[in-house]
Amino acid sequence: MLNKQLLIYSLLFFGFILTINAQEKRKIEIKYAGRLNVDEDKYPGARILTRDESQQVHIGHESIELWCDRAIHYGKENFIEAYGNVRMKQADTVNMTSKYIEYSGITQLALARGEVVLTDPNTTVSSDTLYFDRLKQEAFYRSGGTVVKDTSVTITSKIGRHYMQENKFKFVEDVVMVNDSSTIKSNYFDFYSDNGHAYLFGPSTITTPESETYCEKGFYDTEKETGYVLKNARIDYDDRIIEGDSLYLDNARNFASASNNIKVTDTINKSIIKGHYAEVFRGEEKDSVFITKKALAITVQEKDSIYIHADKIMVTGKPEERIIRAYYDARIYKSDLCGKADSIHSNQKTGLTKLINLNKFSSLDKFSTARKPIMWNLENQMTGDTIHLISNPKTEKLDSLLVFENAFIISLDTVSKTGYNQINGKRLKGLFNEQNQLRQVDITQNAQSIFYARNDLQELIGIDKAKSGSISILFDQGAIEEYTRLNQVDGSLSPESQYDERDKILKGFDWREEERLTSVDNLFKGDPPLELPVIKGLEDYVPPKDFFDEDLLERINQAGSRATENIVLSSKTLLGNLLKFNNQFSSKTWTKTNLSIKTYKDSKNTKAYQLISNTEKNAYMFQSNRTFGKKVKFSVWLKGKAEISIIIRDIDEEKTFVGLKTVNITPSWSKYSLFYTKNNENNEIKVVIGGIDKNENVYIKNTELINIPEN
């Protein structure tokens, strides 16, 4: 029994000794100082340490080693101020140099000023002012800073936060990243230094020698030069602009792809391609655009644009030699001309557009065997195995039309509305007038024709049916004005009554008026329904928690030293928000009268609080703060249904000055702000949220108190 008691006593004593050693170990240790002085008037309770000629002052604290020319050591507060050629080292991971450092052994927070440079194995951070939290392994600046990764990447921003254990940075405001291949500018920018991954939020641009990409949400791999961008996404090349709901870019391969609501603009040739999936290659050998899913190519002309639609469209060639290839049920539309074919090829340099029957399907496929390429101009329907449409690229005027093999032209007799004027032959050549109307048509080799002949009173004389070597016809406003047959073999003009119905049509007759395109929307008639994929992409930007969060502020409060307060005050000045626990209303920092606090999460899982009045009228809460400058702004996010008051009370020796704003809150989150000019620049003020009555619904989150700089 005695041995057991002795063992317990020994263990307790040993534990006590370990506790003492641990506490002593947490004390800042002076490892070397050339001289030691005391100045109670200027530095009460502190020792003044100065270097000598041999070496600097050397200070240690756990894994931290610090060297400087001069130091003020507050032993009781476990706090040090270091001046002159300051260098701080944490094991083999972090080195920081500056002109001045404050460091607390209790909070383990360092504040460095003056040409601050912090390095770790992957990056170098430089700023005029930098905070370093050794416990969380985080560094923070708000007055402008620069981050360099392996000398290959440089990032500047107004605000920066370095999460060392994650090799991650969060940058805010005026962010610029520069490397050998690109420059990125953004408002909110997350960067992982180990793999070069960057996440962009807010208006952002990625600029390379070949392109500029814009987005308001995106990802970019700075090492592989790949990424994807969302939200008003756009890529500008020298001669093309790509827009879409989601864009993927591979700048190393000069490649981009796009999904949903795509628009590709050719700025040189004044053409536009639309669809819902596209691939774009850049470069002399692979300069091309491929687009599908409601693919539409538009050649913009001053008076009348040309539209081409197909299952797939490909644009290839140099900027001045673009060729458009549309295939599988291709369609072309212009206000005075339209057509359909298996495939349409258009050369923007030569002005040649080809309507082609691919003949790639089996004989059982009706479209490939019977649905020959077709074109309409005014009242005329033209078909053949292949159709060529020739225009002048400079004047944008139609020049001529060629139909190869099995040429057939049909027009409805405008008077009877039942008969058809018809001409067929092996080959057709048509010429257009200045109004882009078909003026002359010549059909050669084995020409056959049927015309409904009428007199000047438009009375039917008879049906003129003949065969000849060729036929030349003149049109006026789409109607036949006159015709001439060459090398006629036979022919007759007989009354309509002498013809059987089958004799009124030529072999190969195929009237397809129901397929005629009457508008741009008709281009998509008969297309299968299209269901676009949902673009998930990146999550919305989530603002980081305050560097001076509840944990760090609690550490500072526990330190309770005059010197440590300097860190708190300077941090508040830089951070902007002067409120402690600005979104933690259950904290004792918020003094509450007749008020209960209940945690609440809204539909987006955002943490907020419900304010519950325990009295009939005027429950309230407040927080006191000392501010700087004369003008301040107090803001708070509220929702619910109530009339409440937002108050700023300005306390001085004689009387209380009050700024007051009464607001009617609504069921949706809204931000309410109160501006106030103080009586005394350095007074303490109270911010109050009050006038909350029983049974009223009031929800709150994210309060803010900031100084407003004077102009």
Short description:
The chain has 711 residues and is mainly β.
Could you characterize what this model shows?
With 711 residues, this protein is mainly beta. Among the domains are: 389-509, no CATH class; 577-707, Jelly Rolls, CATH 2.60.120.260. 7% of the residues lie in helices and 57% in strands. The protein is built from four helices and 44 strands. It has a 35-stranded antiparallel β-sheet that branches. Strands 36, 37, 38, 39, 40, 41, 42, 43 and 44 form a nine-stranded antiparallel β-sheet that branches.
Shape: elongated
Provide the CATH topology of the domain at 577-707.
Jelly Rolls
Strand residue content: over 45%
CATH C-level of the domain at 577-707: Mainly Beta
The CATH architecture term of the domain at 577-707 is Sandwich
Mean of residue pLDDT?
A: 84
Low-confidence stretches: 1-25, 568-575
Number of helices: 4
User: What is the SS-derived class?
Assistant: mainly beta
N-C termini distance: 80 Å
CATH superfamily of the domain at 577-707, by name, is Galactose-binding domain-like
| Beta strand count | 44
